[in-house]
Give the backbone structure.
Amino acid sequence: MGSNDFITLFFLVAAVLIFLQLRNVLGRRTGNEKPPRDLYTPRDAAGPETPDAGKVVTLPRRDAAGEEEDRFAAIDAFAPAGTPLNESLREMNKADPSFNPKEFVNGARMAYEMIVMAFADGDRKTLKNLLSKEVYEGFDAAISDRESRGEKVKSTFVGIDKAEIKNVEVNGSEAQITLRIISQMISATYDKADVLVDGDAETVAEINDLWTFARDTRSRDPNWKLVATESEHE
């Protein structure tokens, strides 16, 4: 046997011995091995595999008073705690947990502008979506009367100076909120001959209104509708 054959045999024997050693150390797959641990699984979900698992500290839950404080935080920021308005807004929130007074006022401001301009333009479709049946009938009658005389209204909405909640009532599932809205508008009414018959095309007028919005808190429809209007004279 040549020297090269001897060296080849030597390495072959060494490889067999190393394989047997690894087999003894690493063992064989039997089908009963524990699955590899998922490093992205939270410690609690993985189970108490290490002694440190018993050292996990469970944070205390907030008590009922703390949860109520969080629930009414938006209301307390809107109206001072202990005031009649704050108390009525809390009742509103109990009837509808999604209610937020600041968001409501912002929505009412947008609805006010849409309704005022829709009335001026005779846009019945927009009005029907924003008004209760009774209020819509009143607006529709006024528009029809204007149309019968051939009159047209040209209005420019300047803006809202103030919108504040004056009253909140919750009767069962029916909720009503009244706002005082002070707005600035330019409005002029012209007859068939395009002659000015009411208002002023250049003067900005201040309008003080009390508008009441309502909705059924049990309804899936989150929209409020205008149910009453009243002009306020200071």
Q: What stands out?
A: The chain has eight helices and five strands. The CA atoms of residues 39 and 48 lie 14 Å apart. The radius of gyration is 37 Å.
